Amino acid sequence: MVPVLIKDLLTSAPDGRDVTVCGWVRTVRDSKNLVFIQVNDGSCFANIQLTFDRNAPSKNANVEKIESELKNLNTGASICAMGKIIPSPASGQAVEVTLEDLDCIGKCPPDEYPLQKNKMSMEYLRSVAYLRPRTNTFGAVFRVRNQMAFAVHSFFQERGFVYINAPEITCSDCEGAGEMFQVTTLSLEKIAEMGVKAGIGGMKIEEAHKIVDYSKDFFGKKASLTVSGQLEAETMALALSRVYTFGPTFRAENSNTPRHLSEFWMIEPEMAFYNLEDDMDLQEDFVKYLLKWALEKCAADLEFFEKRVQKGLIDQLQHVASSQFVRITYTDAIKELQKSGAKFEFAPEWGADIATEHERYLTEHIFKSPVMVYNYPRDIKSFYMKQNEDGKTVKAVDVLVPGIGELNGGSEREEDYEKLVAEIKRRNMDETIYEWYLNLRKFGTVPHSGFGMGFERLIRYVTGMENIRDVIPYPRAPKLADF
Predict the structure, then answer these.
(1) What are phi and psi for residue 345, nearest 5 degrees?
(2) For 163-170, what is the mean pLDDT?
(3) pLDDT in tens, 358-378
(4) I want to staple 278 with a disulfide (CB 3.0 to 4.6 A). Which of 274, 371, 395, 481 is the partner?
(5) Could you tell me if 72 and 64 are in contact, meaning their C-beta atoms sit under 8 angstroms apart?
């Protein structure tokens, strides 16, 4: 008999029918004549209770086998049980299953089981990431992650977007930061030997780089893991009008903060014939859609996060989902921060990026609502953003929300070939790498816009989890690449 998911059992009618339950034991309580087994299969936050009454077993119960199998049960063991679903007299649950047959599929030695400890820190659980989905916290995190991924696709599919897959290996750096993981089939040991022979210790870095002959590499040139699928998404948008990419991206930033990962997922839509205002409208709709989805589809898990992780989480999500986002220029935002009289670690100044402390002050104190800051200084934003007529700012926008600061951001892209070439040269970037990107501006160019949202940043916001490494199944960060 195919097992019924526990989430479906808990909402079933207690009509005495036969059911099969499979999952992992959370607790076993044997009180002489009555045995209570709490089982979870990960389909929902709640457990199902299996009961066995030694004084009055079901007439169909395989008593001897059940007694034998009970000796093998403890926290973490996997089981397959059969019985009848009946009303539960216990508070907090509507149904339970009376045992008629029981199999311990996989034993779990309590003296070796890593999750047997009474107190387990988040850091400890990262060291056993292959088991942490069995805990209440991480089961809830990954169920929410599943729902939010579905919501992302639903939002764009409902609006006529085409889902595309951007390459994970690229020869161009979208952000120009240079913090990319290199992909190569060249022997690093041989390169090191060549460096020693060439006396690399006394060479300039430019000369040292000449030792590596990338023409002999797999792709014939230097290649890296992508930091963004945006540039490739633009090529698709200029043929399919509205597209989005949703996949893994990588950044070799040596950072150990709770906000950074080396491998993370990005949601990146690109829209032809959209200006900045259109882009801002879409971003606001997107954020509200996602949060409303979470509030509706993940209610039980959000209640857990509200109780155990972040007080006031649900109210915060409801507030953002129902608010009209304030829109303010970067210049005016700096003025508001400067005249607030608040003390900041970094003084707000025109020309500098808006720090997280500034973002949160704008949303939590000045406006008390989500804020969209737009028209940023040209020099602190990426090369591809459309320049404003003032020559100092670009049509970029960041979406700020209470509790975390920036959630997503985007821009209108520069569609003018000459202006984009000039900007690449001004930044001393290699024009030959971006020839294909520039050619988009030659052949039927149109105004277009897009934005990006880090998926893990979204999950962190929706769950209230403090560390971004705890909202992805297997976090990758400096010195962290194990299971």
Answers:
(1) -65, -40
(2) 94
(3) 999 999 999 999 999 999 999
(4) 274
(5) no
Question: Distance between CA 166 and CA 169 in Å, rounded?
Answer: 9
Residues 113-155: pLDDT tens digits?
999 877 789 999 999 999 999 999 999 999 999 999 999 999 9
**Gyration radius of the chain's alpha carbons:** 28
To 10 degrees, what angle do helices 455-463 and 276-297 make? 50
Burial label, 408 (beta-carbon count in 10 A; 0-12, 13-18, 19+):
buried
Residue 246 pairs in a beta bridge with 267
Residues 6 or more apart whose CB falls under 8 angstroms from that of 420 comprise 383, 384, 414, 438, 441
Cβ-Cβ contacts under 8 Å for 216 (sequence gap 6 or more): 186
List Cα–Cα distances, 253 to 173, 178, 180, 408, in angstroms: 14, 9, 8, 19
- Flag whether pLDDT at 482 surpasses 90: no
Total residue length of the chain: 483
Q: Looking at residue 177, what is its pLDDT?
A: 53
Short-list 230, 246, 233, CA closest to 149: 246
The Cα 7–Cα 459 span in angstroms is: 22
Of 132, 231, 128, 244, nearest in space to 173 by CA? 231
Return the pLDDT at 199: 57
Structure tokens belonging to residue 39: 């089982």
| Residue 196, burial from CB neighbour count under 10 angstroms (0-12, 13-18, 19+) | exposed
**Both tokens assigned to 294:** 């979470």
Residue with the bigger pLDDT between 87 and 253: it is: 87
79 contacts: CB under 8 Å, gap ≥ 6: 21, 22, 23, 24, 25, 37, 39, 69, 73, 102, 103, 104, 105
- The two structure tokens encoding residue 84: 């009848």
Average pLDDT, the chain: 92
Q: Give backbone dihedrals phi and psi of 312, rounded to 5 degrees, phi first.
A: 80, 5
The secondary element (H helix, E strand) that includes residue 28 is strand 18-31
Q: Report yes or no: 446 and 440 within 8 Å, Cβ to Cβ.
A: no
Angle, to 10 degrees, between the axis of helix 299-308 and the axis of helix 276-297? 90
CB 230 within 8 A of CB 174: yes
Residue 208 to residue 212: CA distance in whole angstroms? 8
pLDDT of residue 192: 67
Distance of CA 255 to the CA centre of its chain: 18
Residue type (1 letter), 57: P
